[in-house]
Design a protein that fits this description.
single chain; alpha/beta; 7-stranded mixed β-sheet; two-stranded antiparallel ribbon; 6 helices
Length: about 210
């Protein structure tokens, strides 16, 4: 567990391919998908927050702080990351220097995610890190220093919306994970994906028995 790191679940997407609504609250193996994400992330960090807009009461059952975007018009995941960086700086008493972000539709995130992102960043000597698997980077699965929050705010105010373009300016390491027996960054974007995620979760549970 990293005592200097806050975990944030990015749960603010519009879920158009799911028919609208809160995708992380869709049921998966008898629980909201968000519950699976939090269960895997929480042991790795000092605390977990949810980034979401609208009425926070819909997440009340998780007992976690809900941090809305501080910018209007839903400018995307970077705004959620900035909200988490501001939350860490202003409400955690200065003890949190890092934020790790994960999407709310990725219920299979690895249990060594935070440690390996930190290790990749330190080895490369750069301020940022993101996950990679199957030949693809996953920019929303990232490690962000609180020290860069004003730089991120300035970029967003200037119209920046692409995560990888912004991180490339500052230096971003990539930590690679294998895709066997499954891709740990599989995300459930459609009802069919949700069914596949349930199959993968059941397979993971059987493998650990």
């Amino acid at each position: 567990m990293r005592a200097d790191t806050l975990g944030v679940v990015l749960a603010g997407g519009l879920a158009r391919r799911m028919g609208g609504g809160d995708k992380p609250l869709r049921m998966l193996a008898g629980r909201p998908m968000l519950a699976h994400v939090v269960e895997r992330l929480a042991p790795q960090v000092a605390a977990v927050a949810i980034n979401a807009n609208g009425d926070p009461a819909r997440f009340a059952g998780f007992g976690l702080p809900v941090v809305p975007d501080g910018m209007a018009d839903y400018p995307g995941p970077l705004a959620g990351v900035l909200a988490a960086l501001d939350f860490a700086a202003e409400r955690r008493g200065g003890d949190i220097a890092w934020v790790v972000s994960v999407p709310g539709d990725s219920p299979l995130i690895p249990l060594d995610l935070v440690a390996r992102l930190h290790a990749a960043r330190a080895e490369a000597g750069v301020p940022l890190a993101c996950a990679r698997s199957g030949g693809f980077a996953h920019p929303p699965v990232g490690l962000w220093p609180v020290a860069l929050r004003e730089a991120l705010r300035e970029a967003l105010l200037s119209g920046e919306r692409k995560i990888d373009r912004w991180t490339a300016r500052h230096g971003c390491a990539e930590a690679e994970w294998p895709t066997t027996p499954h891709d740990p960054f599989f995300n459930a974007n459609t009802p069919e994906d949700l069914a596949e995620a349930e199959r993968l979760l059941r397979g993971s549970a059987s493998a650990t028995r």
